[in-house]
Amino acid sequence: MRMLLAAALLATSACATSPREATGDSVILAKAVTAIERRSGGRLGVAVTDARGALLFGHRADERFAMCSTFKLLLAGQVLARAADGVSLRTPLPFTHADLVTYSPGTEKLLGANGHGEQRLSFAARDAVVLSDNTAANLILAHIGGPSAFTAEAHRRGDRVTRLDRNEPTLNENAPRDVRDTTSPAAIAKSAAGYVYGDWLAAAHRETLRGWMIESETGLKRIRGGLPQGWVAGDKTGTCGTAYNDVAFVEEPGGAKYMIAVYLDRPAVKGDEASAVIADVARAVVQDLP
User: Fold this and answer.
1) Catalytic residue positions?
2) Arithmetic mean of pLDDT, 62-70
3) pTM for the full model?
């Protein structure tokens, strides 16, 4: 894996590298990803980074893609980071029936017969990652100051690309050429590495976030579906109807650690077939190991 990704370091342009821009395994990987994109019928963005967030391979890595629910990974990271500043993870987040939005499998169970309920900040963050609970994400956003506060924190961490402009579910619109609620594969992979492997979180909170990503089952057919047995991985998916995304930490049995971000925009395939495209990307990254 180290040889493959080190060779792929040159493959970091906005689009796939051409053979004259890279040599060895990076050419093989770039051709494989280009072929996968062509078969998908959509626009495919890929970024592979090391544990420090340094880009090792990219295909359309700097192009913008709708985040869909992948923003919830960074949102949960922001919640856990605030704990170091004294914000209690047990902070109550009250809500009413009017606050519930589509796909909120965790939060809706907390609604009382009187039309009122309450989430706790840490449980809302967990539900946002593990269940992709939309209301939980909205409650967190309201608590921290809205989408603009999310974006400001991403920028403060050095990510000047990722931006959130709306709440669930309107952030999933994914209108052509709309920069709202977008990121790039390279930007989100680097930010995710900061939370999962870097010093942005205390060690205990890093383990909490990793645990949530492993616990989530929404991405078992995406990046994790293309990994060999024995690898450790956890992820956060995003699906907008016209987009299929996944961001994962990936660890070899030997200990090497990576972040992989895959964004598939407007493919000709849907559902499990679109997830299989993402799995094929992960498989292409690891299949030519020496």
Assistant:
1) 69
2) 98
3) 0.92
220-239 mean pLDDT: 97
**DSSP calls for the chain:** -HHHHHHGGG--SSSPPPGGG--THHHHHHHHHHHHHHHHTSEEEEEEEETT--EEEEESTTS-EE-GGGHHHHHHHHHHHHHTTT--TT-EEEEEGGG--SS-TTGGGG--TTSEEEEEHHHHHHHHHHT--HHHHHHHHHHHTSHHHHHHHHHHTT--S----S-TTGGG---TT--TTEE-HHHHHHHHHHHHTSSSS-HHHHHHHHHHHHH--TTTTTGGGGSPTT-EEEEEEEE-SSEEEEEEEEE-TTS-EEEEEEEEES-S--HHHHHHHHHHHHHHHHTT--
Q: Determine the Cα–Cα distance for residues 215 and 229; give it in Å rounded to an integer.
A: 17
Please tell me the predicted confidence (pLDDT) of residue 26.
82
The C-alpha atoms of residue 112 and residue 90 are separated, in whole angstroms, by 19
Residue 7 confidence (pLDDT): 41
Query: Beta-carbon neighbour count of residue 169 at 10 Å?
Result: 15
